[in-house]
Amino acid sequence: MTPNAFLSQLEHATRQLLLTVQTELAPLRITELNQQPAPKAWSILECLEHLNRYSCYYNSALAEALAYGGTPKREVRYSWLGRKFIAMMAPGNTKKAKTLKRMNPSGSQLGREVIVEFQQQQQHLLELLAEARHTDLDRKAVPVEFFKLLNMRLGETFEFVVLHEQRHVQQALRVKATLSVATATNQAAPVRASQAAAVSRVTSA
């Protein structure tokens, strides 16, 4: 794939993430945003906070790598390491990855500032993607966050970051779905109780 087509896809995906969070998650009440679907499972805000922590590292690392420039190549290429991390982070991969303690926000009570930061980080990522059109995406220039002796190529790092964000925004949407089910169940309970009471009165009569 050509660098321009590759970067355009990632820009589109990032804009879709911003839109999804703005329309599907931001309107929820703060209690819903902090509600865990199960013990030790992340809330919606914890999913986004996890992404913010990674964005703080990778956006900075990408900006530093972009500062060195380079001549764009005709195609985007992948290293073995990059392919492995990308496959691991793909939203369709249902295998859970172990989260580093410093990146794990489990048990946090968070506010709407998490959503604001997420939006800011994504805007920064869009700026970096635009800047990347003028550099060599095949250059190994970005240290892996949890093992900095390993470097990923610039292009594959961008893809890894966007896939990781898609993975956890989808997780946040699944949490939202459990909230909807819980709300529907709670609303149905008084109706069932009322119906049962009505039946009881008829039977008694």
TrEMBL record:
Residues 25-172 form the DinB-like domain. InterPro entries: DinB-like, DinB/YfiT-like. This is DinB family protein. It comes from Hymenobacter tibetensis.
